[in-house]
Amino acid sequence: MSSSFRACAVPLACATVVLALLISHGTMLVRQPVSPDILFLFLPNASFLREQLLQGALPLWNPLLLAGHPFLAELQTQVLYPPSLLFLLAPPERVLGPFLFAHLVWLGLGTWRLARYSGASRRAAVLAGLAAGLSPLAVEHYAHPNMLCGLSWVPWVWGSGRLLARRPTRRGMVGLGVLVACSVLAGSPELTLLALVGLAGCLWKRTRWTVGAVGLGAGLSAATWIPFLELLVRSDRGTGIGTGEATSFALSPAEVLDLALPFVRFGADRSGAQSFQSVLFVGASILLLAAFGLWRRKRLAGVCGVLVLLALGDAGGLFTVLHRWVPGAGLFRFPIKFLSPLPVLLALALASGFSAWERGRPATTRRPGAVFAMVCLLGACALAVAEAGAGWAVSLAWVGLVGGALLASRRLAPGRRGWAVAAVIVLECAVFQQGVGTLANRSGGAPCRPSPAFRPEGRVAYDIDWGRVDVAHRAEACEVGVPNANMAGGFAALEGFVVPAPAYVKRLVREEPERAAALLGAAVVVIDDEAKRAAYPGEVLFQNGSYLALRLGRPGRAVLESGGERLEVEPEVDTPSRLAFVLPRGGQRLTVRDAWFPGWEAEADGQPVPVLEAEGLRAIALRGDERRVELRYRPGSFRTGLTVALVSLGVLVVLWLRPGRRAREA
Fold it and tell me: I need a labelling partner for 5 at 20 to 30 A (CA). Which of 22, 345, 571, 601 fits?
């Protein structure tokens, strides 16, 4: 074997392994993510949205959830979010992976732009973008699509704020307003508020421009957030959330170690700990380089410290004070969400740290440093593949190998150090996510479709302990059609940002599910416990290892009452936002088995009649001679929001076409 071949063998072998890992990593990033929230919330919502848009209807109301629930007003549904149009191309289970991957790329591009506007060099800005987009803490939000979407807009808002502070122009203000609107429409109000707090820090000397941009963004997104506020006021959160529930998913002091050391608590007993995020690891290479930047930028270090302190919930004390004394803070829960902006902030610190890093010692030789870096990274790969277990030794070995690779990169020529550091970041994140971390738990699932044996007609009630329905029961859940929009909605008590309204219906579902199934008109009930079967007399429609579907006697969608008689009535027209009944005879009251909510209007023989609330359902008082009753969902909040949005769009066009001269510095 020649000396030249031996000299190239190790780098060639390392490059082959790296290429294989990156290809596999990229493939996993575009596959359908798997998590309970995706299966039982986001996929059904996306399926319903796609179905309605293909029919040419704007989905304001979802009749499949809790006997009916406002759909557009729930921010997580992302009805008016422009990228949601991608779901028109194919079924959501095939589009969701690329949809989230595109937002991950958008997050990286926005962080690169923010780093450049913050004064970082080109190489440092590119590394910042890679660090933000590949951080395991960011990819973990594949399990929470609305949070990943919201996070992807945070660096764009901050970057445009910095640009506007430096060069205030009307077009710059318009662009920032559009970005703020996209952040609102992405469906994560927590991250939108954090983005606005950071924006205020960027533009605190430019009050007029800040108010103009935020006002324009609020106006453009008004058709979503005004209905959302109406829903919020009428939900359980309208009176605030108790401190105990609000801090239920908080970072424990012991879990702070997970941010820096990947395996100290990996696989350990986590009973009683938060389970909102399965991965908290930031990335050793990212954190090591960011440490240099945080030392140089004390203000940025302080912001990161405050976010970690807030994420600790009661243990940190700051979240409790915020929740108790700041108006509006009582509507929020899950302190762990305050960690979400860390990938962007640490990426900025990394850009600053790399600037100091690349001004280090001059290169002495090229090949030994590069080979040593690759050998260290392959050692980290071996630790992951061999599943060496949890503990201090493995964690310190991982961080030591990555740190050794970074030190070895300093031996390269200054122009190549950026490439070496980029390789370290990309490879470490790819190995961790694919081997033992985020993507191992969050992606790779096959498209989930209900079993052909389960084809019920009418509504489905789910009397299921949702705490037991996790990824381990995914196959059984798919078979009974839980992720399918046409069946998923029955009365499943899904926890979104806003507790589904009306609160009465939700309490009834949880406390008396068999009564709820009868009152709300279920045709099929799915149970997960044979002991519950006595409460639901009916034939078995479908059964597997974990779930049992029983066919109930299908009641009508409405009940016509006259004296002491009750007549079941089916609608002539049955769409999400419109119901029409042709009555066989007169009556005193028509009760529709759908949830009552403001915005529903009714006509009896063409004359407006009020819609009343009867045990959480919609009821209409009749004179006794009507033959046709029609109900439409026309929420005034949406019409008001749409008017504001159209006016704001006109203002945007005027400001963009007539930008005026660049404002002079005050």
Answer: 22
Helix (H) or strand (E) holding 461: strand 459-463
pLDDT of the residue at 494:
35
Beta bridge partners of 630: 580, 603
pLDDT band for position 153 (cuts 50, 70, 90) = very high
Strand order in the sheet with 565-569: 565-569, 558-562, 589-595, 617-621, 611-614
Residues 6+ apart with CB under 8 A from 281: 136, 137, 258, 259, 260, 261, 262, 432, 437
Least confident span in 169-173, 239-243, 312-316, 418-422: 239-243
| CA-wise closest residue to 180 among 230, 219, 131 | 219
Concatenate the DSSP letters of all residues of 531-573 into one string. Answer: GGGGGS--EEEEE-SS-EEEEPP---SEEEEETTEEEEE--SE
Calpha distance 588→561 (Å, rounded): 6
466: DSSP letter: G
Are 451 and 478 contacting, i.e. CB atoms less than 8 angstroms apart? yes
Read off the amino acid at residue 372: F
Q: Give the whole-angstrom CA distance, residue 131 versus residue 346.
A: 8
> Which residues, 6+ apart, have CB-to-CB distance to 77 below 8 Å?
45, 49, 59, 71, 187
CB 411 within 8 A of CB 364: yes
Is pLDDT larger for residue 493 or for residue 473?
A: 473
How far apart CA 67 and CA 58 sit, in angstroms, is: 19
**Number of other residues whose CB lies within 10 A of the CB of residue 291:** 16
Per-residue confidence band for 222, with pLDDT thresholds at 50, 70 and 90: very high
Are 496 and 231 in contact, with CB atoms under 8 Å apart? no
| Integer Cα distance of 225 and 363 in angstroms | 55
Q: Hey, what are 538's tokens?
A: 């009916």
Q: What is the pLDDT of residues 61-95, one digit of tens each?
A: 988 776 788 899 988 889 999 999 999 998 888 89
CB-based contact 603:609 (threshold 8 Å):
yes
Paired tokens of 351: 């850009």
What does pTM read for this prediction?
Answer: 0.89
Label residue 102 by pLDDT band (50, 70, 90).
very high
Helix axes 298-311, 318-325, angle to 10 degrees: 80
Give the residue from 223, 149, 212, 214 showing the smallest Cα distance to 180: 214
Q: Residue 113 and residue 108: Cα distance in Å, rounded?
A: 9
* Amino acid of residue 665: E
Q: What sections of 455-528 are H helices per DSSP?
A: 474-479, 503-511, 513-519
Q: What is the DSSP string of 175-212?
A: HHHHHHHHHHHTT-HHHHHHHHHHHHHHSTT-HHHHHH
